[in-house]
Target: Glutamate receptor
Amino acid sequence: MTWGEGNPKCPCNHQLVILRGQFILRLVALELIKNEEVQAIMGPTTTMEAKFVISLGEKAHVPIVTFSATSPSLISLQSPFFFQMAQSDSIQVKAISALVQGFGWKEVVPIFVDNSYGKGVISCLTDALQQAYVRIPYLSFIALSATDEAIVAELYKLMTMQTRVFVVHMSPRLGSRFLSIARNNGMMQQGYVWIVTDGIANFFNSMEESEIESMEGVLGVRPYIPRTKVLDDFKVKWKRKFLSDNPTLVDTNLNAYGIWAYDATTALAMAVEKVSSTNFSFAYNNTSSGNVTDLENFGISQNGEKLCEALSNTRLKGLSGEFNVVGGQLQESTFEIVNVVGNGEKRVGFWTPQIGLTRNMDHTKSSSSKYSTSKENIGPILWPGDKFTVPKGWEIPTNGKKLRIGIPVIQGYFEFVKVTHDPSTNSTEVTGFCIDLFKAVVEALPYALPYEFIPFENHSGEMAGSYDDLVIQVSYGNFDAVVGDISIIANRSNYVDFTLPYTESGVTMVVPVKDNRKKNAWAFLKPLTWELWVTTACFFVFIGFVVWVLEHRINKDFRGPPSHQIGTSLWFSFSTLVFAHREKVVSNLSRFVVTVWVFVVLILVQSYTASLTSHLTVEQLSPSITDVHQLLHNKMNVGYLGGSFVRRILKDLGFQDSQLIVYNSAEECNDLFTNGSIAAVFDEVPYVQRFLGIYCSNYAMHEPRYKTGGFGFVFPKGSPLVADISRAILNVTQGDKMRRIEGAWLKESNCQDSNTKVSSNSLGLESFWGLFLIAGTTSLLALLICAMSFLYQHRHICYNPSTSIWRRIGILLRIFNQRDLNSHTFKKSGMVDHKSDTSSSHHHDGIGAVEASPSTHCPPSPSGQTESGVSFHGDQGMLMMLASHVIGYTAHVQDIEIKLEQNIITPEVQMQCL
Model:
């Protein structure tokens, strides 16, 4: 269609040309720009055509408008004279990524047409899927002129892969042919997922019935154009006009590209009207050449920049909805998701840049809606194979091959993996804990998983390398997986993927144990530290002294010669250790002190007993080596399991090659310990637990422990089996089946847990200082009360200014050394003695019991000592009576001096008494 000089709607005398058709002739574009001096060109339908025309438009400052070239690579040209008035493919890949993410598929294989249209979307689709953590294991390219045989060969290649999710980005004619061949080759069955872009989905309504039927179950993503009355009226008029101009054509359906063409034309016409300029001429720098193919002889449109500015600012409500062009590109809009059902299509949902997947457009009006990729937000989908069950997105390849699983061939620890060859039948049997666990995991999968075990061995039947060599075979593609006692470590995870671990993790040290009980004669002293021993002994002496002070004047058990009193006090204190003290305490203060002390002794005795028991019991598990540095410092040999990564850990710790000894079985390891070849062993926890289960009485597992991931199954990087196998491992390990497998292969050990501390710390003073503080405070308080009471009773001596301080102290000490006759114990004792023998009036300490006369305050006369009724006869009697008078008089004089010093009598009275 051309707007020429005779068109009344054209605002100028020059022509505005809209180029239509599948192929744009480059010479025609040059002709129109140079000779016709067109102001704008609309219609490059392909990316290749658009790129060439864009370069011409940029030289001549002529706007280039396309409504069908959707490649994102066109925008990367950053030409100010290019306008892509169609939804870019960089937008629809976001909708595809949301679909893949919503259904949880982890791998997708894109299938592109091998031209600029197909290749232009690769980078955008890859980026969108990687942001959703979706892997692209393979890119499939189909030539535009590919034969059916070439397509079948490519489809067979796709069938041999595990991925079953495909994204098809092709032209409608090639896409329909490709999908029809895929259906004929059995790839439109249950388990497959086909998603087509708008290059095919926009033409669903114009395809033949046989073509659309071959796509049943396919999902399509295409721009959403809301149905309005204006659009319906336009379709009716357009259909009438189309049939009038093309009576032989049957296809009268109008798709998104036709609607964008109308809106783009309207926007361009509005821009031309805004410019309203009569200067539509071209300026030429060189007009000498008349060759229309001379690219350097271009004129420059004087109105091109103004027209581009007006076109960029054009906003309208077109047939496709809101039609806004910003930066030369049509703004993002809503995409609809359609499902091919039978010979028609059904809309199942929408995708918008703001809220993601949604069931209907009403949700887009809510400002509080968040972006979502949940599959619950779209309607039910009929998948290939006439099934509504969501495909898991991958399958075991259908080329008849089983999963090839590599198995390590080890010389010992057959409980984990054991490979047995039968020469008579030429068969190989693989058994063990890891094998049975893998079989149980496969049984727990919701689908069948065919596999075969292949031992990793050489011609002599030995393992064909280390465990690292076995793991790397998976990344090389020699094995599809590895099952066995394979530890999960960091450097291996760079090449393969591991499932969740199914055993305890870590590398630990095993050392021999020794019994020190018979080698130490002073083991009974170890429960307490020397500070606690000394403190306890001091308190025994202190408590004995306190009790003696409190009981000396009132308790006859604590009197007598000094040696006897010291022995009695210490005996009483130490006898409380076994609660065998027989001396009675009569003072309430003494009873209070002894009560507290007995409680302290009880705690000490019980703690000592428990600590001694712990020492004697735990000491028999004492390790011979307790530190790795001890091994390094003494340059001792250590052992490790052959082929294990533990060797690398030992080298990193600083062990030399000459110190590293290899063993292949638990028996060989025990022999190395027995003959003194090694001082310690470093191995993984499952092996150590098995080793201790056999030799638990001789060895102990000791820190440090180096962290690893435990045992896991190995799969190639990005394998979709990893997630399903890991979930199945959890189901097996948390159930009874795991206990049955462990019971069959790994017998439980009766050994004590050697992970605990193998030495018991001695009890220190810090654990009992509170008890000693209570006992000491109680004793000092009792002493203070006793001293204050004693000093108060003899305060006349303490405050006698006529006597020196040392004299007063001596008097108080002599008084303290005497019995307190006023105490209830001596009063009671005196009453009993008087009743039994009234003739005896002497104290037990040899000092007569004297009483002052009430009138003179003088002690009785010494002659009174013989008035008790005792008579003496003869000379012998006279001598005894004389001795008695002398002794009595001496005591009488001493008693008077004491009373004089105590101010009981005056010097005058003293003279009278004498």
Q: What stands out?
A: The radius of gyration is 55 Å. The chain has a mean pLDDT of 77.
